[in-house]
Amino acid sequence: MLVIPSFFENKYRGNDNIERSTPFDNGYVLNVLIEREFNVGKEENNAFIIDTKITTSGGTWYTPVDLERSRILGTDRIQKEFGFTQQYDDFLEWDLKF
User: What pTM does this model have?
Assistant: First the structure.
């Protein structure tokens, strides 16, 4: 079993001298890895392995889109004055292997 936590902050200060989060400022990442091996067969010289990994992290930051202006122009227009002020939900992934 292996548990790997990371806690961090990732910010920048723009030309307007305001400190903001970067897209990578999700605050934490946690990985948990567990593996179990079973000897099988008549002579127990074969192996059956169960392996799992769970990863979770804080949500990525993003810059919101100006929907009204984007519809008028027919292409995405981000709201630069709100750079990286919105955050997606936390991320969770579970892998299981046999």
Answer: 0.76
